[in-house]
Here is the input.
Amino acid sequence: MTRLTDLPPAQAKRLAELECPDFTTRPWVTGSALSQRRVAIVSSAGLVVRGEDPFRGRDADYRVIPSTTRPEELLISHISINFDRTGFQEDWNVVFPLDRLQELAAEGAIGSVAQTHYSFMGATDPVQMEPHAREVAGLLKGDQVDAVILPPV
Amino acid sequence: MSALGHYLEEEGLATVAISLIRPQTENTKPPRALWVPFELGRPFGPPSAAAFQKRVVLAALRMLERGNGPVAIEDFADDDPRATQDPAWRPPLTPMTVAAGPADALAARLEAEVGQLRGAHERWEAQHRRTTVGLSGLPIGDCARYVADWLRGKTPPSPREGFSAPLILRFAVDDVKAYYLEAAAAGAAKPSSRQLGDWFWNESATGAAIHVLREVLQGSDDDRLKLIVANFMVPATRVRSAG
Here is the structure.
């Protein structure tokens, strides 16, 4: 297994001190109770539906993952090889918890699950990612999403 | 990634990130984040553990109902129960007796070994009804041949439009690794990722071949190829020291 403390010190330091734009705003959106929310996954694991183009290096755009995607159709094309993939191989919910969201919706803990989910490749320069992220925000709002869970890998 | 949360939240969407690296999250300050103590690659914890995963998802989503921001980081207390080794697990192949050798011999061993794993991989697919092999777009035998040909000193052209040969090499290596790790995990035992990685990198001919390939191709004149083989074929924790 690989945790931050397992990595060579230089690499661990790079990850821990990853640069992020110096944002001038601190946005904070509130909303209704969780049982009323429509939830989407926006992953930064470089996920791609089989047959579509994997992320090439540090591509800043995104891939679309419909809620109808089956576990056998989802691949990881993240540029980094320094994280475990065996958990995802056994069970996609380790990275992309769509089954868990569907169960929570069926139980009434959340309102519903988005029709479409998205993935970026997390090692990309955030500045280059920004226009694509704002485009995804528009698509999510078009799907009446009002809660987003952001898993890394 | 924290920047994603910032952009989406600025657009009016409430977000909560899962954090695997707490110092990074403290540095980048997303609107909300749940730090989890799991290994990299497992943001929702152990595989085949629906109840545990659901607790992680709910712990994160519940943060959306609290007004303690902006910038709220909470910790998930429980560790991954699947992080420990399973003494009942056995590797699918007899360990190789030669850890290294001439590149041509290793290339042949790699191709033969992939063939030997077919039965174990078929058992994996029957058990889990999926495979994560597929990034290169090549059948596994062709993946093995593609990687082996690089090891033999050839520079096979990319079989896929829009993807350079070095990038296909990386994807083919990813596919071969996925094939091995899936085949090795077939059956009732629940090996940890470390057990599987130790076996692949230390005991399989293909693990040895990828180490050698990385070392050989770093002598290339192609800067893109050198970058890919140096950083994106052998995990940092598995790179052998020079000499």
